[in-house]
Amino acid sequence: MNLQRRDFFKVLSAGVITATTSRSAQARPTFKQPPDAVGLLYDATLCIGCKACEVGCKTRNEKPNVHSEIEEYFGVSGVWDDSRDLDSATMNKIKVYKNGTAAVKDREIDGFSFVKRACMHCFDPDCQSACPTSALIKDPVKGYVTYDKDACCGCRYCQVACQYLIPKFEYHKALPELVKCEMCNHILEEGGITGCAEWCPTGATIYGKLDDLMAEARKRLELKPGDRYSFSVHTVDSDEKKSRPVEKYIDHIYGEKEGGGAQYIMLSAVPFQKLGLPEMPETSGASKSETLQHTLYKGLIGPIILLGGMVVATYRSTKKHQTDE
Amino acid sequence: MESKPLGGKIFTKPFKILMVFGIIGVILILKRYFLGLGSVSNLNDGYPWGMWIVYDVVTGTAIACGGYAMAMLIYIFNKGEYHPLIRSALMAGMFGYTLAGVSIYIDTGRWWNLQNIFLPGTANPNSIMFEVAVCVALYVAVMWIEFSPAFFEGKEQHKGKLKLLNKVMFFFIALGILLPTLHQSSLGSLMIIAGQKVSPLWQTNWLPLLYLITAITMGYAIVVFESLFSSIGLKRPLETSMLSKLAGVIPKLLIVYFVFRFGDLIYRGALGHIFDIDLKSFMFILENLLYIYPVVILFSAAKRKNPKYLFLSAVSMLLAGVLYRFNTYLVGFNPGNGYVYFPSFSEIMITVGIIAIEIMAYLVFVKTLPVLPQVKHAQ
C-alpha cells in the first residue's frame, strides 16, 4: 500500500513539475494591434448629445426602437427610441455625466459631458477568449469583433468576461441572440463607414485607420485650449471640416492601453472614470486566463501523466480488492 | 460486504410531495422554452449567471463529488475498507452531474448549438468553458459506466457483460478520478477572466486549487451526510466508525486550503477588505466560520465519533463550500452600472424541482438496485 502511494506521489510530482517549469515559456502575452486595424475616435468635447449616431446605428443594423416603462404603462409608444442604456436592441448609446449645477459642458465640477458607449473592439478581446464556440471572433486583419449566431450556444460567458459590459442578450425571446457592435463590418466591406460616424454631424465620432485616428488623437492633446482647430467630420481623412475652439482635454487617450489596447478610442475633458468607463489594467483578462490554462494543460502532458498514474494505481488496487474477495 | 436493493414501496408520502415540486419545476421549464429566460428568471446583462449556473452546475457538481472523493481514497490511496460507501456516493454523484448537464440545457439561450463546443470547426480550447464542458460531459458518461454493474448484478443472463465490465473498470475508475480533478479546478478558473468584477476577497489566480480542494472536502462531507441521513431516513444502522474515520480527512485538507486562501489574501494585500463592514465582508467571515467549524470539531477524535457532531460538521462543511461558490460567482460579483440580481421565485422553483427529481431518482434506485451495503442481522 505504501509503495503504491509513493508511486502515485512520484507520478503526481512529475506532473506538477512539468506543468510549473514550462510556465515562463507558456505565458500567453496580450495580443497586439492587428495589421490593418480600423477604428473609431470619439471626442466627447465635440459631442452635442443629439443621438444621431444611435439612429444611424439602428438604421444600419436594423434594430427596433426601445420603449420605456412609462410608454408601456400608458399603452402608447412614440416613434422615437427610448433606450436608457446599451441593451439587446441598442449597440451604441449616448450617456450623460452631470455634476452640481451642470452649467457648463466639458467641466467636471458643476458641468456635464456626453459619452458614447459601444464595443471597444479590444486588441485581445476577453469575450473571444471566453467564448467556447468561437462565436465571437476578432477579424485578424481589420480587427473588428464580430458575432456568429449560428455558432453561439447562448452560455453568456462573454457577458461575464467583458469588463465594458458590451455583449447584450435577448433574455425575453424564446430563440435569443447576442447583440453587440460589430463595427458595421457589413457596410465596411462595401466600402462604407460605420452608421455612427456617418450620421454624426459634428465630427465627435470619426471612422478611419486606427493609426491615423491615434495620430489625430495625439495631435488634439497637443493643441492649446481656446485655439481654433478644424475637426474632420465622419472620417479622419475627410475634406469636410468643422472649425471650433479646442477644449481642455484630459491628457489620456482612453482605449490606447486599456486592457492591452482597443480600436475604439476616446478623448474627453472630464475624467473617463466619471463618464462610467472602467479603470483597466494594461494587460487583457484573456492573457491571464489563457496563461493559467495553457500552463496546466500544455500539450495535455500534465493530465496524461496524471491519468497514467491513476490507471496504474486503480489497476493494482482493483486487482487487490478482487483477490481479497 | 455486498450491496443489496432495499425494496419497499416507491410511492410513499414524501415521494408524492417531491413529485409535486418536480412537476412545478417542469412546468416552469416549459415556460422558459416558450417565453425566454427572462420570463422565469431575474438573469440580466450584468448578471448573466445566476442561481442555475451557480447552484445547479458550479455548486451541484461539487456536492456531487462524493463518488470522486471516495474513489480517490479507495483506489489511489488503496483504502479498501471504505468500499461499502462507494456505490451510493457514486450514484448520488451521477445524479448530481447528470442534472447539472440538464440545467445547462435550461440555462443556455441557444441550447440547440451546444454541440458546437465540441465540434472541430467551432471548439475553442482557449476557453475555460471548453475544458469544463468536455470534462463534465465525459465524466457523466464515465459515471454511468462505473455505476452500470448495479443494473446487471444478480442477473444470470448478464453475467458475461458484468465480467467484461469488471475487467475494464479500472480504466474508467482512473478516468473518473482524473476528470473531476480537471474540471472542478476549472470551475474556479472560469471566474479569473471576470477580473475586477469579482471582489478581491475572492478573485485570485489560486481559484483552481481552492475550488479543487473544497470540492474534495465537500465530497467527503456529502458521503458522511448522505450516509447518516439515509441511515435515519431509511431506518438502517449507523455506520459511524467508518464515517468518523473518513471525516478525519476533511480537516487535514482544509488546513492546506486555509494556508493558500489566507496566504494569497495577505500576499495580495486584500485581507483588509474583511473590515469593509458590508455584505461582502460579512459573507466572507460567515463562509470562513463555516470552514473553521469542521476543522475544530473533526480534529477531535472523541467528537468525530459522535454522530451528532459528525453530522453537524458535515453540514457546516457543505454550507461553507456552497457559500464559497455563491460568494465568488454572485455576492462578490459586481458588474457595476447599477445591475442587481436576486433569483426570482420561478428561478428558485426550477432549481427546487430539479433537486426534487434528483432525490426521487435516488429513492427509486436504492429501492430497486443494489446500491446500499447489505445490513448484517443477528450479530
Supply the helix-strand structural class of chain B. Answer: mainly alpha
Give the total of domains of chain B.
1
Order of helices and strands of chain A: HHEHHEEEHEEHEEHHEHEEEHH
SSE string of chain B, helix = H, strand = E? EHHHHHHHHHHHHHHE
Mean pLDDT of chain A: 90
Query: How many domains of chain A, as an integer?
Result: 2
Oligomer: heterodimer
The dominant shape of chain A is: globular
> Main beta sheet of chain A: strand number and arrangement?
3 strands, mixed
Please give the order of strands in the largest beta sheet of chain A.
9-1-12
Describe this structure in words.
- The complex is a heterodimer of chains A (325) and B (379).
- Chain A has 325 residues and is α+β, with helices and mostly antiparallel strands.
- Chain A is built from eleven helices and twelve strands.
- Helices cover 33% and strands 15% of the residues of chain A.
- The longest helix of chain A is centred in the C-terminal third of the chain and has 24 residues, at 301-324.
- Chain A is globular and about 90 Å long.
- Chain B has a single domain, classed as Up-down Bundle (Formate dehydrogenase/DMSO reductase fold), CATH 1.20.1630.
- Chain B is globular.
Q: Could you provide a short overview of the structure?
A:
Chain A has 325 residues and is α+β, with helices and mostly antiparallel strands. Chain A contains eleven helices and twelve strands.
Layout of SSEs?
The complex is a heterodimer of chains A (325) and B (379).
Chain A (H helix, E strand, L loop, with lengths): L1 H20 L1 H4 L11 E6 L8 H10 L7 H5 L19 E6 L5 E2 L5 E7 L8 H5 L5 E3 L6 E3 L9 H5 L6 E2 L8 E2 L5 H4 L6 H5 L5 E5 H13 L5 E5 L8 E5 L18 E4 L17 H13 L3 H24 L1
Parallel strand pairs in A: 1-12, 3-4
Antiparallel strand pairs in A: 1-9, 2-4, 5-6, 7-8, 10-11
Helix pairs in contact in A: 1-11
Chain B lengths: L2 E2 L8 H23 L15 H13 L2 H11 L6 H25 L20 H20 L1 H4 L6 H31 L17 H27 L6 H8 L1 H19 L11 H21 L1 H4 L2 H25 L13 H24 L3 E2 L6
Antiparallel strand pairs in B: 1-2
Helix pairs in contact in B: 1-14, 2-4, 2-13, 2-14, 3-4, 3-7, 3-8, 4-5, 4-14, 5-7, 7-8, 8-9, 8-10, 8-13, 10-11, 11-13
